[in-house]
Amino acid sequence: MQYFKNPTILKILDLYKDIWALSYTSAVNHWDLETYMPSKGVGARGEALGRLATIRQRMFLDPAFVKLINLADKQKLNDPEKAAIRVLNREFKFYTKIPAKFIEEFENLTNTATVVWRTAKEKEDFKIFEKPLSKIFDMNRQMAEHLGYEDSPYDALLDQYEEGLTSKTVNQLFSNSIPQLQTLLKQITNSKKYQKTHWLENQKYDRGEMSKLNDKILRSLWKDFDRFRIDVSSHPFTTSFGNNDTRITTWYHEKDFARSILATIHEFGHALYDLQSADSLEMTPIAGGSSLVIHESQSRFWENHVGRSMEFIEKFLPDMQLAVHGSPLTVHDAYLYFNKVSPSLLRVEADEITYHFHIMLRFEIEKDIIEGKLKVKDIREVWNTKMKEYLGVVPKKDSEGVLQDIHWSGGSVGYFPTYSLGTFLSAQWREKMSNKQIFKSTNYDKTKAWLEQNIHIYGSIYTMDELLKKNKMKYDPSVNLNYLQEKYSKLYEFKFFSQ
To answer: Which residue out of 81, 267, 364, 366 is catalytically annotated?
Structure first.
């Protein structure tokens, strides 16, 4: 399929390749910073990335380039061409409203702050990270003022991660879903089958065997490792340099092996979106997924609907046994372990029900700081209070509380809500494929093909609403709530009732 035919668009894309090359260079440097770069190199790396960001801004605002964008905006365009202009106009708005000096300072700050965060987390001391975090939130508040907003400055930040998303929408999602999740959680914890802990959580595993297992899982899901690789980082993430170079990271701990497996599968979901984006979109503004809610719906689909499934666990059970030094495992016991519901401290290892309480907590803290209702120095206290209120647990150390996530150190304020929105949407993809008899067994070729043809291949051509409409769907959180009620009432053997 030839996506781009308009002569003006073709000129724009030719010029855009220079901008793409800078983005590519920055992405490689970010990936290296998170994986192999010596920690003392952070100063020069932050300076370099800050300058690259301002060079990109200057190239983007070049009058000849802007003139072509304005010209194309008035012409008859096909869907991919319209999308390219839509994305470029969003970037143009950002670059015209945010001063170059601000961009350079913010890029430098967030890259150096990532290493400070890592040190603070290792030393269990929020005070080490408090100063740079205060600066990051201050600059995000300034960014919101530069960009403009109608109701809340936080809305300007949400829009950077999901086009058109507002705090009002997020509030409505939590208002409608949290009470039902609270009811379901209460019924689970009151059931006769409920166990607060599972013995596998404290079972030590062999890192070498776990690494082999993660590799085996990934090779069963994706054959072409000439386009894909996995490394280790302090917080799992995915980076894509193009259709032929997408990388993920995972992490390893001494025990609780599901943390590593589910993190690996989660990141694979992100990677697959990029790997299956149409080749014709590479090096253009609409390569890869544009919507973070769609992106998170992919990672959470693979993590929850595949990684936690009985079929998946049964397939890799012998390898899991090897990792836990040959400890006897039954499929049912392992299934209970992967799907155990219990309030916990860490978002990334939270079960499907309590996960959204973690996201709501972060959303509320971010919003209050940006709106000036909360100071960074008080985050730890507020965090612990909300954890006690929402989940009945309180962190004993900062790595299990306010320092557990990497997002703020990278400047990402407004990202967290997309996890909940994406999680709810993931159940709708499962339902759609199940109705078509596609999502079943452990042969995921048909699943990947459906996702490619209906989501991935389009890259950023469509917004989330447009993509759902194209698939004859509308965003409906009740699908995920019904899925959770059916799954966990069966697992814990009780009849669900609403309050």
So the answer is: 267
Instruction: Give the per-residue pLDDT at 464.
Output: 94
CA distances from 58 to 16, 22, 100, 300, 331 (A): 12, 12, 8, 37, 57
User: What is the pTM (predicted TM-score) of this model?
Assistant: 0.94
Supply φ then ψ for residue 230, to 5 degrees. Answer: -130, 135
Q: Is the pLDDT of residue 203 over 80?
A: yes
Encode the chain in three state secondary structure. CCCCCCHHHHHHHHHHHHHHHHHHHHHHHHHHHHHCCCHHHHHHHHHHHHHHHHHHHHHHCCHHHHHHHHHHCCCCCCHHHHHHHHHHHHHHHHHHHCCHHHHHHHHHHHHHHHHHHHHHHHHCCHHHHHHHHHHHHHHHHHHHHHHCCCCCHHHHHHHHHCCCCCHHHHHHHHHHHHHHHHHHHHHHHCCCCCCCCCHHHHCECCHHHHHHHHHHHHHHHCCCCCCEEEEECCCCCEEEEECCEEEEEECCCCECCHHHHHHHHHHHHHHHHHHCCCHHHCCCCCCCCCCHHHHHHHHHHHHHHHCCCHHHHHHHHHHHHHHCCCCCCCHHHHHHHHCCCCCCCCHHHCCCCCHHHHHHHHHHHHHHHHCCCCCHHHHHHHHHHHHHHHHCCCCCCHHHCCCCCCHHHHCCCCCCHHHHHHHHHHHHHHHHHHHCCCCCCCCCHHHHHHHHHHCHHHCCCCCHHHHHHHCCCCCCCHHHHHHHHHHHHHHCCCCCCCC
Residue 168 token pair: 């009002």
Q: Which fold has domain 167-491?
A: Neurolysin; domain 3 (1.10.1370)
In the chain, residues under CATH classification 1.10.1370.30 are: 167-491
Residue 388: how many CB atoms within 10 A of its CB?
A: 12
pLDDT tens readout for residues 367-410: 999 999 999 999 999 999 999 999 999 999 999 999 999 999 99
Query: Is 267 noted as a catalytic residue in this protein?
Result: yes
